[in-house]
TrEMBL record:
The keyword RNA-binding does not apply. This is Alpha/beta hydrolase. PROSITE patterns: PROKAR_LIPOPROTEIN. Residues 29-38 have a biased composition (Low complexity). It comes from Candidatus Enterococcus ferrettii. Keywords: Signal. InterPro entries: AB_hydrolase_fold, DUF915_hydro-like. Residues 1-22 form the signal peptide.
Length: 289
């Protein structure tokens, strides 16, 4: 009888220890979104370059911090800086190694306050150059106007034969519906299903050209909200940053969105936000296209 009681006691102890261990694992997983990304093994990295395209009035510092953090975490390596002049001529600093190191290319516009139509032409010039360097595919990461101009390139040109295939697109705080805020007219859930209730000329252009976007291209939309009672990141309305979700999804593209809340979700701080870093790194380099 004593042996039987001892056995029952031991089983209960083991069950209690196992339960505690399970809960610890769940809590660790849940909080992992606030932690830095772990270095990727060399054999799990790729040779597909990622283009970092700044927003309106952006400079080399705009994505400088994120690029530096990715290098320090051994997630990727900066290899090129391409500065585009207004006449589409390129200044190339650095050299592509063709190594499997998740190469990063920073794209700068010398006229950094120009419109999205010219910027889309400049993006095309960069892509054509990379094609001459035997680059067959690229990712694009755009902040603010950088995301707007990248989508305009896609809706205008689609997949030209003289440029690499765009295999992933990330847009951070991009005003796809200009600066129209429809939050008083619809919920975010309604926006994601139906699109914006009020459409800018920019959005209508996207509607007219969305069929040009290859349906195999996955997209990630990241947006900011300063806090409770706000509906923007201090510059771009949340409903504008997420406005193309429905349009892109109905075109057949895989698409995800994520909203960051708080002071670090301010428009110019989004690309300095480590939680944004983590989602960008996972989407670009840890998930298969």
């Amino acid at each position: 009888m004593k042996k039987y009681i001892v056995s029952i006691t031991l089983l209960l102890c083991l069950f209690f220890v196992s339960s505690c261990h399970s809960n610890t694992e769940k809590n660790t997983t849940k909080s992992s979104t606030n932690q830095s990304s772990s270095p990727l093994e060399t054999d799990s990295k790729g040779s597909t370059p990622t283009l970092f395209i700044h927003g309106y009035s952006g400079t080399i510092n705009s994505f400088g911090g994120m690029i530096d953090r990715f290098e320090k975490q051994q997630l990727a390596r900066k290899e090129l800086v391409i500065t585009v002049q207004p006449d589409s001529t390129l200044q190339i600093d650095g050299k592509l190694s063709n190594a499997r190191n998740n190469p990063m290319i920073q794209v700068l516009f010398a006229d950094n306050k120009n419109n999205e139509w010219n910027q889309s032409e400049w993006i095309y010039a960069v892509l054509r150059y990379l094609k001459t360097q035997n680059v067959e595919q690229v990712n694009i990461l755009g902040h603010s106007m950088g995301g707007v101009s990248s989508l305009r390139f896609l809706t205008t040109y689609g997949e030209p034969e003289d440029s690499p295939k765009i295999v992933k697109l990330v847009a951070i705080g991009s005003p796809f519906n200009d600066f129209i805020d429809t939050s008083n007219q619809q919920t975010i859930d309604e926006l994601l299903v139906n699109g914006p209730t009020q459409k800018s000329d920019r959005y209508i252009d996207y509607e007219n050209g969305i069929a040009n976007v290859p349906t195999s291209l996955p997209m990630l939309l990241l947006a900011g909200e300063l806090g409770a009672g706000t509906s923007d990141d201090g510059t771009v309305p949340l409903t504008s940053a997420l406005s193309v979700y429905s349009l892109v999804e109905k075109n057949g593209n895989p698409i995800r969105q994520s909203v960051f809340v708080g002071p670090n979700a301010q428009h110019s701080q989004l690309h300095e936000n480590k939680a944004v870093d983590q989602q960008v790194a996972q989407f670009l380099w840890e998930e298969k296209p």
